[in-house]
Write a structure and sequence with these properties.
Blueprint lengths: L15 E3 L5 E3 L9 E6 L6 H19 L2 E6 L4 H11 L4 E3 L4 H6 L4 E2 L11 E2 L2 E5 L5 E6 L9 H12 L11 H5 L2
Length: 182
């Protein structure tokens, strides 16, 4: 399956998903007085590397929140599968589920089919990480086609601090072609 990659500096799409514990959430909108958003797309319950990464996200959460960043983790899993995996994670951030194939494509994610022996019965998104600023623009885009290639959450937090501090007035990285057309 092909999908168009989201460009740095573009507006992150408004996508509403169910969250564990009830209700729905627009994954592009921060809450609780925070003004930036970190969206972490993970593969699902079948992926032990995702469980490890989500535990690392728990460890980085206080630093991210101190920078004004709200956090949500998202997968294509059903609510039951997501809830079962989160028993191993005990997340202190929101977890959304039910990401559809068209939504995966809208986010520019790689999509994989289940393979023999995998505990999954439908296509799923490969990892993605998006940092959205207070204007809704993508400050950081990281998309992978494999579960073992993900950015360090410690470095993501440091990078956000740098973007929000000394580099707050700099253009968003990776927007050269767009800035040259103005």
């Amino acid at each position: 399956m092909t999908s168009k990659k989201l460009a740095a500096g573009s507006v992150f799409p408004a996508i509403s998903l169910p969250v564990l514990g009830g209700g729905r959430r627009d994954i592009s909108r921060p809450r609780d007085g925070l003004d930036w958003m970190l969206v972490v797309v993970y593969r699902g319950k079948h992926c032990p590397l995702c469980t490890t990464y989500l535990r690392e996200l728990n460890a980085a959460l206080a630093d991210l929140n101190a920078l004004g960043v709200d956090v949500i983790a998202v997968s294509a899993d059903s609510e039951a599968r997501a809830a079962a995996q989160m028993e191993e994670v005990s997340p202190r951030f929101d977890v959304a589920c039910g990401l559809t194939i068209p939504q995966m494509q809208e986010l520019g994610l790689y999509i994989s089919d289940p393979r023999n022996g995998m505990d999954v019965d439908a296509p799923f998104a490969e990892p993605g990480l998006f940092v959205i600023d207070e204007t809704g623009a993508l400050q950081i885009v990281d998309i992978s086609n494999v579960p073992f290639s993900r950015p360090s959450l410690e470095w993501i937090a440091k990078g956000i601090g740098f973007r929000r501090g000394p580099m707050k007035d700099a253009p968003i990285n990776g927007t050269y072609a767009r800035t040259q057309r103005r």
